Amino acid sequence: MSCFAGVTDVGCQHRAIVADSHRPKDLPEFNWINTILSKLKTSLVGAYHAFVFTKYGTRYLGAFVYRLYRRFHLEALPLRLFVAAATIGSRPARWLRQAEESF
């Protein structure tokens, strides 16, 4: 894939791992991705099973990514959310519904 040339251009290393289809999950190289995928699946199945995923899927994934990247600084999360909510100001209902209309 051509995207991996960009990875090596910035000084990172990339090596392909060829795994048979029987036990790729047992390879230690895939431990982190298996953890991420299992957390994503559990989050979506547990919290959003009753909602229309095709309509709100991007929001669900966005919320997951936000929590994923903020998990290292959980103590700062409530304050950050409070600051974001306090500084956005009032918005008309039309502005709030723009995301729903984009689907």
From TrEMBL:
Question: What domain of life does the native source organism fall in?
Answer: Bacteria
Question: What InterPro entries is this protein classified in?
Answer: Tnp_ISXO2-like (IPR024445)
The ISXO2-like transposase domain is annotated at 2-67
In Swiss-Prot or TrEMBL terms, this protein is called: ISXO2-like transposase domain-containing protein
Q: Specify the species.
A: Nitrosomonas mobilis
